[in-house]
């Protein structure tokens, strides 16, 4: 059995580069996106041929709807470089918000919806986010956490955000590779 490959942080080549072929889960390998195409360039195609992006219970949500909702969330982010706490249970709004945070060139800080007000207040004081997104279910805990925390953040309920129509193709993001994408807090039991 060959020794497992060890990732070299200085090597920016994809993990599959040594095999000469792309993994089957790569969307380009599956033919979903032509080589050298970006998501913004594909926007007209997504509109013409709606494909399912998310399945939530019995609902199928296409890519156009997902992009519209992500753009609506991006408009609510304080700005590039802002840290944004997302404190809600798993549902499509969480995904829209995450994509919106990244589209706004901000840093996503997901917090488990089961966190207590004290735990959330710790995160708020530690990472000092500009924005705190919650849901109907987590709003009361988020409000208590803001009352306990020294740091202040703008509170927005994800389930109250209305999508705006996509009026133009999305522009490719010019992202600084050293920019922080996500900050993860754990309970310490994840091993």
How would you portray this structure in words?
The protein has 191 residues and is an alpha/beta fold. A four-stranded parallel sheet has the order 4-3-5-6, sandwiched between helices. The longest helix has 12 residues. It contains five helices and six strands, in the order αββαβαβαβαβ. β5, α5 and β6 form a beta-alpha-beta unit.
Q: What descriptors fit this protein?
A:
disordered N terminus; two-stranded antiparallel sheet; 6 strands; alpha/beta; 191 residues; 14% strand; 5 helices
Topology:
Elements: H1 39-48, E1 52-56, E2 59-62, H2 63-74, E3 83-87, H3 92-103, E4 107-111, H4 117-127, E5 131-134, H5 139-148, E6 154-157
Parallel strand pairs: 3-4, 3-5, 5-6
Antiparallel strand pairs: 1-2
Helix pairs in contact: 2-3, 4-5
Spatial shape:
globular
Radius of gyration: 19 Å
Count of DSSP-assigned helices: 5
Could you tell me the number of beta strands? 6
Q: What is the succession of H and E elements?
A: HEEHEHEHEHE
Structural class: alpha/beta
- Helical fraction: 25-40%
Give a quick account of the main beta sheet: strands, pairing sense, barrel closure: 4 strands, parallel
Uncertain regions spanning at least 5 consecutive residues: 1-39
Largest beta sheet: what is the strand line-up?
A: 4-3-5-6
What is the terminal separation in angstroms? 26 Å
């Amino acid at each position: 059995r060959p020794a497992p490959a060890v990732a070299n942080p200085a090597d920016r080549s994809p993990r599959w580069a040594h095999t000469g072929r792309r993994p089957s889960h790569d969307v380009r390998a599956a033919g979903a996106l032509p080589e050298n195409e970006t998501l913004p360039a594909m926007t007209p195609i997504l509109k013409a041929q709606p494909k399912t992006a998310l399945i939530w219970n019995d609902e199928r949500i296409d890519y156009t709807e997902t992009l519209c909702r992500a753009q609506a969330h991006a408009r609510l982010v304080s700005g590039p470089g802002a840290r944004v706490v997302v404190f809600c249970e798993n549902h499509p709004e969480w995904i829209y918000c995450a994509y919106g945070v990244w589209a706004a060139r901000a840093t996503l800080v997901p917090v488990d919806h089961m966190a207590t007000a004290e735990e959330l207040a710790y995160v708020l004081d530690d990472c000092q986010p500009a924005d705190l997104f919650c849901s109907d279910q987590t709003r009361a805990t988020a409000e208590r956490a803001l009352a306990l925390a020294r740091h202040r953040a703008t509170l927005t309920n994800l389930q109250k955000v209305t999508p705006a129509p996509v009026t133009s193709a999305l522009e490719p993001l010019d992202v600084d590779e050293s920019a922080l994408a996500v900050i993860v807090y754990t309970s310490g039991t994840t091993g």
